Amino acid sequence: TLVVLDLRYNLIEDLAIDHLANILEDNTKLRRLELDGNYYRNTSILGHLISIKNDPLLITLDLSRCAIDDDKIQLLAVLLRNNRTLKSLDLSGNSITNFGAHRLAEALHNNKTLIKLDLKRNIGRDCVAIAAAISIRNSQISSLNLSGEEITNDGMKYIANELYNNQTLKHLDLSYNEIGNRGIGYLALVLGNNRTLIKLNLFGNYIGDKGLECLIENLHFNTTLLILNIGGNPIETMSYRFTLNITPEYGWNRTETIGNEYFLRAFQNHSTNEILKLDHNHLNDHDIQHLSELLRSTSIKIVDLSSNEITDQGVKYLTDILRNNRKLTTLDLRYNRIGEQGAEYLYEVFQEHPLNKLKLDGNQNDFVTLVGIAISLRNDRTLVQIDFNGNYLGDQGIRYFTNALQNHKSLNHLSLNNNEIGVQGVRYLAEMIQKQPLNSLQLVGNYLGDEGIVY
Fold first, then answer.
1. Which residues are listed as membrane-spanning (predicted)?
2. What is the DSSP string of 393-442?
3. How far apart are CA 203 and CA 251, in angstroms?
4. What angle do CA 187, 192, 193 make, to 5 degrees?
5. Which of 78, 182, 277, 380 could disulfide-link to 153, CB 3.0 to 4.6 Å?
6. What pLDDT tens digit does each residue of the chain (455 aa) get?
7. What is the spatial distance between Cα 294 and Cα 292, in angstroms, rounded to a whole number?
8. How far apart are CA 279 and CA 330, in angstroms?
């Protein structure tokens, strides 16, 4: 019985190939047919089809860049419908449209064997989504990056369907695609029941208020998702950013106003979220007032409010609540409109607070930045050397600085060159050194004078 037929490099054209295909249609013994190198490159497809049909040991098949169009993919789909051995199939770089990809998806609907399907660089924009859906269903992947793959609403439907019963995927990146309200609706319905996904990135799509509202309603039933990135979408209503059981990892939403207390309460009642990241969201003091109330009853450990429009009054709202929040470890307020009064609020509140990092760079003056550094330094007891040169601390700044270093028993080197430190500043340093001896102290380029040297 003929098992292998090798017809490579024989100038065979399509007409002869069609005739050969008819002859072999009912043949169940031939396991390998080699047709590479004939007049038309795509004649080799028939050989692969024979292998799929008859070879029980075929596990991996590479059909990339083989000029496969929708007609040929439908032939392939018929053979794959009952195939239970093939685990990897590469169809990248062909001419498959959405029509062909959908027929392939239908054929593989009940397939539990194919782990890897590559449909990249084809014509149809749903190709990558369909391949991803099959990977989600059949493989044990925990992370999937589909950023920038032109996934549409229809493609999103395939992915969402496979997420319904998935128990392994924890991280899904769908950023920079073409997912709109309809596509996010498919995903939202699934997320209500999903108990595996932890991180979801939807940055840079076409999700509007209606799509986000649908997402929020279903997330009320989800207790697993911790990080959701919805930045870079045309979201108009400010309050939506506070509605989630989890919160956006990044900002950059197009928002102006705040309202709708119902959505605010949805966030407030969530007890497991540890990260609140709302940078670049045009938050003003009024918004911070609402946010402060949310922080009162949550387990937030990290708060990022950088690059917003927060002033001293907004800081006061925050500090009034954070005063009693002992779980907070990091507060990022960089690039806002905080002045010296706001910095004073922060310094007062965090004097005896276990906060590890307070970031205040890019506010109204260097003094504000200094306060953030001082508080961060105070709680980092592992420091051995500090070089803080050329920062224009002045006497007032050095007071905060030395107070922060009072109990650093491990510190042995301190460099404060070119910081405009005068007599009063040296006095603060002298008091600190009495309690905290140093091996090395550098004060080059300051304003010590004779009186300062005495200290």
1. none
2. -HHHHHHHHHHHTTT-TT--EEE--SS---HHHHHHHHHHHHHS--SEEE
3. 9
4. 105
5. 182
6. 667 777 677 776 766 766 666 666 666 666 666 666 655 545 455 555 655 565 666 677 777 887 889 988 888 888 788 878 888 888 999 999 999 999 999 999 998 899 999 999 999 999 999 999 999 998 889 999 999 999 999 999 999 999 988 999 999 999 999 999 999 999 999 998 888 998 899 988 999 888 988 888 888 778 788 777 877 788 765 444 444 434 444 344 433 333 333 334 444 444 556 777 777 777 788 878 877 766 775 677 888 889 889 999 999 999 888 887 888 888 999 999 999 899 889 988 887 788 888 888 888 777 787 788 788 777 777 778 888 888 778 888 888 888 888 777 788 888 889 888 899 999 999 888 888 788 999 999 988 887 877 76
7. 5
8. 14
Is 99 found in the same domain as 86? Answer: yes
Q: How many CB atoms lie within 10 A of CB 450?
A: 7
Q: Give the torsion sign (CA, 370, 374, 380, 385).
A: positive
- Per the structure block, which two tokens stand in for 215? 């997402």
The domain of 73 spans: 59-139
> What CATH number is associated with residue 86?
3.80.10.10
Name the token pair of 286: 């009024």
Closest CA to 384 of 402, 409, 350, 407: 409
Q: Looking at the domain assignment, is residue 7 inside a domain? A: yes
Q: What is the maximum span of the chain, computed from C-alpha positions, in angstroms?
A: 107
Cβ–Cβ under 8 Å, residues 164 and 191: no
**Cβ-based neighbour number of residue 105 at 10 Å:** 21
Specify whether 68 is located in the same domain as 126: yes
- Exposure on the CB side of residue 409, measured as CA atoms within 13 A: 0
Is 194 within the bounds of a domain? no
pTM of the predicted model as reported, rounded to 2 decimal places: 0.61
Structural domains in the chain (count): 2
As given in the structure block, the two tokens for residue 135 are 């990977």
